[in-house]
């Protein structure tokens, strides 16, 4: 009985199989990368959801560390329908009390979850800050 390595037909098949596996590897990787979880903004339906969204964006953008942000206040704004206007607060670490713990003002679009800076001077929606989150 002849060995498999002496049979040219078997050699071609092994070579073709090896090439097929090598060529499929990049395809498999690209398909898996396409399935990777990406965080797409979603609609928010409550003050709490809007606060969670803005605080997660601020942490992801490295604007503030998560442990710096203590709370978030605010809600729907009658002058800007469809938006939550929120103030993000820090922890007060002074035992005597703090004058202010304000970190910043932000707006969250209810329909999309998009997060914007809030222009306090004009009391208007500012630039979007969550493009990569």
Can you lay out the helices and strands and say which pair or pack?
Elements: H1 8-34, H2 47-60, E1 69-77, E2 80-90, E3 102-109, E4 115-119, E5 124-128
Antiparallel strand pairs: 1-2, 2-3, 3-4, 4-5
Question: What's this, in brief?
Answer:
The protein has 133 residues and is α+β, with helices and mostly antiparallel strands. Helices cover 31% and strands 29% of the residues.
Helix content: 25-40%
What class would the helix/strand composition place it in? alpha+beta
The mean pLDDT is 80
Radius of gyration: 27 Å
Order of helices and strands: HHEEEEE
Query: What strand line-up does the widest sheet have?
Result: 1-2-3-4-5
Number of helices, where a helix is a run of at least 4 consecutive DSSP H or I residues = 2
> What is the terminal separation in angstroms?
64 Å
What composes the largest sheet? Answer: 5 strands, antiparallel
Give a description of the structure.
By secondary structure, the chain is of the alpha+beta class. The chain is 31% helix and 29% strand. The protein has two helices and five strands; from the N terminus they run H-H-E-E-E-E-E. It has helices at 8-34, 47-60; strands at 69-77, 80-90, 102-109, 115-119, 124-128. The protein has a five-stranded antiparallel sheet with strand order 1-2-3-4-5, covered by helices on one side. The radius of gyration is 27 Å and the shape is globular. The protein starts with 7 loop residues before the first helix and ends in a 5-residue tail after the last strand. 19% of the residues are buried. The model is unreliable at 17-38 (pLDDT under 50).
């Amino acid at each position: 009985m002849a060995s498999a390595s002496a049979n040219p037909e078997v050699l071609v098949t092994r070579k073709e199989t090896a090439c097929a596996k090598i060529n499929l590897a990049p395809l498999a990787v690209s398909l898996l990368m396409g399935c990777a979880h990406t965080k797409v903004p979603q609609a928010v339906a409550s003050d709490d959801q809007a606060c969670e969204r803005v605080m997660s964006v601020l942490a992801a953008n490295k604007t503030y560390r998560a442990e710096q942000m203590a709370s978030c206040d605010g809600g729907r704004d009658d002058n800007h329908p469809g938006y939550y206007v929120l103030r993000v607060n820090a922890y007060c670490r002074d035992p005597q009390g703090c004058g202010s713990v304000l970190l910043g003002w932000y707006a969250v679009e209810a329909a999309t979850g998009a997060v914007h800076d809030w222009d306090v001077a004009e009391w208007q929606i500012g630039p979007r800050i969550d493009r990569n989150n």
